[in-house]
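My current task is to audit a protein record that another person submitted. I have pasted the whole thing underneath without changing anything:
***
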Amino acid sequence: MIIELFGPAGSGKTTFAHALRRHLQVQGYVAEVMLSYEPGVHHSQLDPGGFWYALHRVAISAMRTAVFVCRPIDNAKGFRLTAKLIRILAPRNPIWLIRFSQYLMTLSHVWHQPHDARQIVIFDQGFIQLVSSLGQFSGVSDAEKLRSALALIPPSHLAIATNAAEPLLSKRLSDRLLQQTYMERLFEADCSANLRSIPIIDQIKNILIGSGRYILSIDTSDESSLQEGVARVAREIGAAWPTCSAPCSPPRAARPRQTLER
């Protein structure tokens, strides 16, 4: 079962993903968060500026790219999807173009690899979020292009939209930048650029709902609402997939698509 989150930067996607993982594990599920990155937690007295950590990130990305290039047949699906999405929503900055292309390949590989039959896989940066980011950095807000990009990506079993008020997002992003090392900040967009993603996220959410996709909206304004959202998602999962500690059958057939957001 694949769950993906999407929402503006600072809306708590990563925090929610790990809180959901812990909650599901307590309930007896096998749950894992994939490709997650937690900003602002990589400080070290031996590397106060984060230079070694930045070098590590670049090296890992280069190694992954080399693996993809050396195995073109195995990764053909990822190459095709990446090329199509970049053709529709190409970032203006070549550095972001390279970064998004590499992450698209990695995400496609992890998304389609075989998982344990009873495993719940959570992405805090899945395909919907990636389309949102491509729209943001390409400057494209045309509904038809966004709709075309969304039609290309593989569907998850459950899509969760995280929400928080814009003033709170601004404060979280400012606080996060203060917690990050100098080199970490070089890998991040600035606060104003991240806030420009809000209307694109809303537009993509409306496109998905309009197409009949069931989107679960979660408020992440505070700890109480976050935990309430975690419990709500767990109930959704429980309705489709019984709790078990032994290997389970795959999720039951999905209920009819709903066009109204809960």
Remarks:
- The first helix runs from residue 13 to 26.
